[in-house]
Amino acid sequence: MKSYFGSYFISPGAEPVESSVLVFDKKMSIGFRNPDGSNGIVHWPLTEVVVSYELSTQRTKVRHTGLGTELYMEGKEAAAFIKEMQDDLQRPWHKKNNSKDWGRNLLLLSGFLGGLVLLYFLIVPWLAEKMASTVSVKTERQLGDAVYDAMGLSAAEDTAASFLLNEFFATMEVPSAYSVRITVVNDNVVNAFAVPGGRIVVYSALLKQIQSYPELAALLSHEFTHVNSKHSTKSIFRRLGSKVFIGLLFGSFGSVTSVLIDHADDLKSLTYSRKLEKEADIKGLEILLQRKIDPKGFEDLFHHLKEASPASALPEFLGSHPDIEKRISYIKESSKNATIVVDQRLQSIFEKIKQ
Predict the structure, then answer these.
(1) Measured between alpha carbons, how far is 206 from 209 in angstroms, rounded to an integer?
(2) pLDDT, tens digit, 9 for 90 and up, residues 32-89
């Protein structure tokens, strides 16, 4: 048996929900929360699913042939394991990986324990995320600074560009309880990410792709929303689940910090749910509209990011929500009749950045 986290489509065409997945030798069990908040569990026999690995999104796709519903999991390890179990089902009994029948009681016990494990993987990450909402801004900053230091990015910082990006964002005058600190890192990675407590990291390769100050404003507003709405903190705590839950439960933030430091490199590629990405888009758009910055900056940003990366290596900014046209659609819908005024201060700083 192996466990995974995934995105489950309850019905064809529905929005995905976060889920916990257990794969057994003959079936897989998917635990999730229904729209009304109640827990749900479905069981798919491995003989009724088709599994594949999508190179473009770097995810495992599992489709139930009868129901037409789908499940996605990060990486290709899940695809390999499910196929291994499916192949094992086709072998004669004496050639199976586990040919011994330990009896009905053991099967019942395994099913019971599997249900408990599934419940654990479903509830603990959710509880960790909820507890993350109670973390103070001061504590978030301490955690974020520790994670940032553990990433070892300071040695590759472009201090001149960092200064200008911080000046650019300060000129936008976005109110927040967080002290936003933006760092430009010299790297060929086309990406940006937010760290709890106010840090935003922008890679130089991404900065080169941005062609206007509304684009840059869109990027920074999106990442700022991840910080200001605690998306980064909640997603990190949910991802690490039980590893931070115990520390949070007993108020031991020292142990939580240690866990985050140990996983610092993993957090560079942190992905968010589509719900949180859309919230970051919409709230980021509100920041632009309030300052009369052209909302087309978001559309241009999406297109340039996609063009700058091969399909197999989408930046995290797109990878967790790859439906570009859908994002552009709700950006356009939410910015109808927008008033646009050229901000000469932002334009001037942007020109210095591009120099």
Answers:
(1) 5
(2) 888 777 788 899 999 999 999 998 888 999 999 999 899 999 889 999 999 999 988 8
Which region among 78-82, 152-156, 297-301, 335-339 has the lowest average model confidence (pLDDT)? 152-156
Q: What residue spans define the domains of the chain?
A: 2-90, 135-354
- The tokens describing 321, both together, are 């929500």
Helix 344-354 and helix 159-172: axis angle, to 10°? 170
How many Cβ atoms from other residues are within 10 Å of residue 84's Cβ? 12
**Domain 2-90 class in CATH:** mainly beta
In whole angstroms, give the CA distance from residue 270 to residue 282: 20
Q: How sure is the predictor about 110, in pLDDT bands with cuts at 50, 70 and 90?
A: low
